[in-house]
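Project standup — Tuesday

K.O.: blocked on the structure for the chain from last sprint. Re-posting the sequence here as requested.
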Amino acid sequence: MEPNLPDVVLWSIPAFVLLTVIEMVSYRFHPDEDAAGYDTKDAATSLTMGLGSLGFDLLWKIPILAVYMGVYELTPLRVPVLWWTVLLMLLAQDFFYYWSHRGHHVIRILWACHVVHHSSRKFNLTTALRQPWTSATVWPFYLPLIACGVHPAALAFCQSANLVYQFWVHTERVGKLPRPFEYVLNTPSHHRVHHASQGGYLDRNYGGILIVWDRMFGSFAAETERPVYGLTKNIATHNPLRVATHEYAAIARDVRAAGSWSERAGRVFRGPGWQPVPRPGAEAAVPVPAPVSVQAAGGPAPVRAEAPAPASVTAAAPAAPEHTR
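H.V.: unblocked you, prediction finished:
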């Protein structure tokens, strides 16, 4: 029997709208020159990406649900839907969310999906709505839960609850919370670090509801300096289609330009900033002309004319690939 669980995202939409309006008004009456704040085009792009993701998610759910139901029917295990098992399922889903989120940062083909969420140089509640249109790469990370007897509908409920929780952490209007909350939960302070593009903040704080996974697995960073949001190589567009696909296009360009199959695989499956090791012989020495002796007949001792020093002994490095990080 399919569990009868509420659609928490649908029920949360009025709260999303109300909180976003409150945040916008707060910037109007209490501006912060250091905060990223709002930009009309940026906010419109985020809203468009969010609406588009709803439609594409319905499309992706058809094959994903078929796989999940197939695995669920094959496993002899069953997890009943009770109040305490739902809490355990939320905890387990958050654990696997951590690894899904981390994987989508360190594997480039997965990053091509998740980069959409990081593509804004603003950080406000509309940024939470900037969701990818290619989220079909997420489902394999949750197969262990289905194999353990969690009904796909119960998993969908947990994923929705996790998504709703993360809405409020996309803001600069909330400072650091009391230490017990900051230690256990994902908070706006922790998530500001996650969206920052500084080197010390990159690939940190993957947690959804709980930040304890980052503390356990070495990916935690506290907020110390003010974050700079966006990508290390930002995209200059508000076109939703380009926002959704720009990293896939960059991967295709890099794969076409690759000189070997191992490099092609690296461009797809290694990290977003991966570069191949230079091939032996890529550095070529510039020949240095022999010194010239000049002597007039019967004149003084030879004058040694030194050859000019070589400008460089290293071949020019290839241009960096056009991916964003």
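K.O.: great, moving the ticket to review. The two ends are 44 Å apart (CA to CA). The CA atoms of residues 275 and 320 lie 8 Å apart.
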